[in-house]
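Review form for a predicted model. The reviewer records the input and the model, then writes brief findings.
Reviewer: anonymous (R2)
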Amino acid sequence: MRSRRKIIQLARELRKNSTPSEKLLWRELRNRKLRGIKFFRQHPLIYEEDRKILHFFIADFYSSELKLVVELDGKIHDYQKDYDRERDLIIRNLGLQVLRFKNEELANIDDLKSRILNFKTLYN
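Model under review:
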């Protein structure tokens, strides 16, 4: 059985072991630095409970204000496109939107932040 406590522990471990790309984006998003929008990192999203087993994803970054999940995709995502599409569909069924960025896009962090803000304008 996956308990909520174990899911939270896993999210905490992921926060401690963030990738360099996640650390870079987190510096830009934390403490409401992006126009006052609150983001969480490595945030659990529970989407189903089946016989006391919780099914979940851990979003790289999540804003409840925007109902937005921001995912950073490293090279591994080149090989798991079907999994990512299925995951995005489940997340959308939770009433959330998903923005995916390749790690290389962090080279132009201002453009990436603008795209997040443009999302805010389009969907809110």
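Findings: The chain has one domain: 4-123.
Further findings: The helical segments are 4-16, 20-29, 81-93, 109-123.
Recommendation: see findings above.
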